[in-house]
Amino acid sequence: MTVSVKKEIAEGIVLLTLAHPSGARLPDWTPGSHIDLVLPNGTTRQYSLCGDRWDAHTYRIAVLREPTGRGGSAHVHDRLKPGNRVGVGGPRNHFPLVPSEKYLFIAGGIGITPLLPMVRQADLLGADWQLLYGGRSRASMAFREELTQAYGGRVHVVPQDELGLLDLAAWLGIPDADTKVYCCGPAPLLAAVEAACATWPRYTLRVERFTTAAHTAPAREAAFDVELRRTGRTVTVTPEVSVLTAVRAAGADVLSSCEQGTCGTCLTPVLEGRPDHRDSVLAEHERAANDCMFPCVSRSCGDRLVLDL
Ligand code: FES
Fold first, then answer.
1. Which member of 206, 220, 265, 273 has the lowest number of beta carbons within 10 Å of its beta carbon?
2. 90 in ligand 1 pocket by Cβ < 6 Å?
3. For 226-237, what is each residue's pLDDT tens digit?
């Protein structure tokens, strides 16, 4: 795709508008979707779509400069210019908006991006919703004015330098079985929201992480076998290699992108065995089903897994 517009919309955040070079119609997407952005320097990064899903000819993403990142955001900020071509994969959605009459959206910083189309959809459908939006300062909070102008009192902007941290106890203190809670932001915010929702009914909270979740040690240290049912081969996965590396070496064709368990590209169906889920994509109930895994990071709890590969 071609970068048609690049502009700074908040401190350290640029908005990119992408279009097909021929002006062709783009694949449809739903709120919560992300794309892979393949930069001219060869790096691939995932960004949430934050534009208008009914605009069939452009995608919009917002990119935060991450000084301690691996160079993807720096390339976007410093090198990418309108007119440049970038590769785009997806869209994919691992953070879908489930139907509800009531939503509480909680965004921290750049975590506003996947929630922006959700807010629009919830409003369009006449749902009862509120957005709690925290950030370092007003100047660092992308889409702040756009949101407050469009939705007024439903949007609660909390710049940390003026008002401190989000008052999660006030918003989440009393569980409400009718409200779905969606949260995206830095890891400490996600952890605080998960803790505050611990007494809420199961499956009311959905979170999206931009970075790999903190993991404990793998469920087992020893090697395990992975049977590739369709390929008809079995490989032994030793502690030093990922399941993805091992199954590829055995001839399985599995697409991957982040290889950190955050993008969802390598999703693989599990036929038998119990995966040691180490990704940041699956919700609790999806993990419990044990019918799929992300082999770039996830491993096995037992001696053997059977994959539909
Ligand atoms: Fe991104 Fe596995 S490649 S989750």
1. 220
2. no
3. 999 999 999 999
